[in-house]
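Tokens in:
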């Protein structure tokens, strides 16, 4: 069992030592901190066309498909840089057409995709209608066992009309199909020629039509991206390095010492520390948040009473006060009040008496609640808080297993995990992918026929009112059946950087994806 202490506030003396060390080795390490200046002050003479991003976890791979689309997850910003996207979702849940110019239908079943003309992959081959057809056909091929096969298999036929026009016939009508494309791997298109030539090597040396190509990928250390001369997307940067630093404190200290331009953090305390130090903390919020996800197919959480007991035992307001000094946003509903689909469906509330009664009831039947929380390092402090809270009850025992990368574990056996999914700015298709029966990212194996029906109703509704009604039903079922406890708090994506280092706000897509293809440094 791995245990990790939560990051402690960084002492000013420690910051000074880091700054002094950086000044002594700046020439060797290529740091951008100016010797004799306060820690983290940008050096105007440094290369302004290179960007270093500090990220908490290494990508699984960089192919067009790891089971996720354009969401704020490890590997997404690299994919966006390499492939760009047919369609993206904006933070306000609007559609942004990028490599595509339109995706239209009159009946929800037959759709016409139109592409920007003249787009080429970095190997010189065209990104045309045939390339999209070939990509989607590969995703759907059962022999490839793609995590997104089920999504691509919704397509019945793909017909190339001309170089920039693809006719898509779905097996069943889907009035929200453009949103499906925008948030799943369907939006990432790779070179079919490179896929055939490279085989499995395409996962680490992908070929797309985005603004950048992969020069180097050193596992668990960094990915180096360089400008793609074939791209029609004219990025202002020449080189982007995405460094993997799993430890929260080390990642933050590396930013302070000049070892990076932007550091990502989902830890609210780190965000507060950065703001106090004079850094910019640009936050991206979405629906959902940080959840304790249950595996409902294995003990103890195959019993609804165990899920209810844990949900009632946890007090998010107490967590907020203890870990974040009351600065977190603790939700009362699964969807934010700002969501166009918001409904006043209350989340389960803390109830110590009810929780203890359920723990006692299960123990009396010979089924005391014992489980391990698998958690990313970023959320180890929250996992330990959950552990400490449950230690105050009888007949429940909790262990914490903190690790840099939880995804391989979630694809196998686990009991509970802290996760930021599902988080979304539009419920479709994320609720279905993460909580729907057979969803590719439904690691907790939750299944409820009524929930699936509600999600289909939201998918087929043509207006906001119809979708809102459907998702109100879905939220009621979540609160009743408890595939997860939470959200414990709204989970912000935080991008920390030096003030005045960039021209305006950082460009963000969907639930917090940093669009590095449109990023420019000040000066």
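Residues out:
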């Amino acid at each position: 069992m791995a245990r990790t202490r939560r990051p402690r506030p960084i002492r000013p003396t420690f910051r000074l030592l880091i700054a002094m060390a950086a000044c002594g080795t700046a020439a060797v390490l290529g740091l951008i901190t100016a010797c004799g200046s306060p820690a983290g002050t940008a050096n105007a003479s440094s290369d302004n066309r290179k960007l270093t991003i500090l990220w908490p976890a290494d990508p699984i791979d960089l192919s067009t498909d790891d089971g996720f689309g354009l969401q704020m997850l490890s590997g997404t910003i690299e994919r966006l840089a390499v492939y760009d996207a047919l369609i993206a979702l904006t933070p306000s849940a609007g559609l942004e057409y990028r490599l595509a110019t339109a995706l239209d239908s009159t009946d929800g079943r037959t759709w016409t995709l139109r592409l920007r003309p003249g787009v080429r992959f970095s190997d010189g081959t065209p990104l045309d209608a045939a390339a999209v057809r070939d990509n989607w056909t590969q995703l759907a091929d059962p022999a490839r066992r793609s995590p997104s096969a089920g999504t691509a298999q919704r397509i019945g036929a793909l017909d190339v009309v001309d170089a920039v026009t693809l006719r898509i016939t779905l097996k069943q009508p889907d009035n929200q199909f453009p949103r499906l494309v925008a948030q799943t791997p369907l939006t990432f298109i790779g070179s079919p020629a490179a896929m055939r030539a490279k085989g499995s090597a395409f996962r680490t040396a992908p070929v797309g039509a985005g603004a950048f190509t992969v020069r180097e990928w050193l596992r668990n250390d960094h990915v180096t991206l360089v400008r793609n001369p074939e791209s029609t997307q004219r990025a202002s940067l020449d080189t982007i390095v995405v460094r993997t630093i799993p430890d929260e404190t080390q990642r933050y200290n590396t930013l302070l010492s000049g070892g990076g331009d932007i550091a990502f953090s989902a830890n609210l305390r780190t965000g507060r520390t950065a703001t106090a130090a004079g850094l910019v903390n640009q936050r991206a919020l979405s629906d959902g948040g940080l959840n304790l996800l249950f595996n409902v197919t294995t003990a103890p959480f195959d019993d609804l009473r165990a899920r209810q007991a844990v949900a009632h035992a946890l007090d998010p307001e107490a967590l907020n006060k203890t870990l974040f000094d009351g600065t977190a946003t603790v939700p009362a509903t699964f969807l934010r009040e700002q969501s166009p689909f918001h409904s006043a469906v209350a989340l389960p509330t803390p109830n110590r008496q009810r929780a203890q009664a359920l723990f006692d009831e299960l123990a009396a039947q010979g089924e005391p609640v014992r489980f391990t929380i698998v958690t990313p390092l970023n959320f180890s402090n929250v996992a330990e808080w959950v552990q400490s809270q449950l230690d105050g009850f009888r007949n429940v025992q909790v262990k914490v297993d903190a690790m840099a990368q939880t995804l391989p574990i979630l694809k196998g056996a686990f009991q509970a995990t802290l996760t930021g999914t599902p988080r979304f700015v539009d419920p479709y298709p994320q609720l279905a992918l993460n909580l729907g029966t057979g969803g590719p990212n439904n690691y907790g194996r939750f299944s409820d026929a009524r929930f699936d029906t509600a999600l289909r109703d939201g998918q087929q509704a043509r207006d906001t009112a119809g979708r809102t009604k459907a998702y109100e039903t879905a939220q009621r079922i979540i609160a009743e059946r408890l595939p997860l406890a939470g959200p414990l708090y709204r989970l912000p994506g935080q991008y920390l950087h030096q003030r005045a280092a960039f021209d305006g706000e950082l460009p963000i897509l969907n639930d917090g994806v940093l669009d590095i293809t449109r990023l420019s440094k000040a000066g």
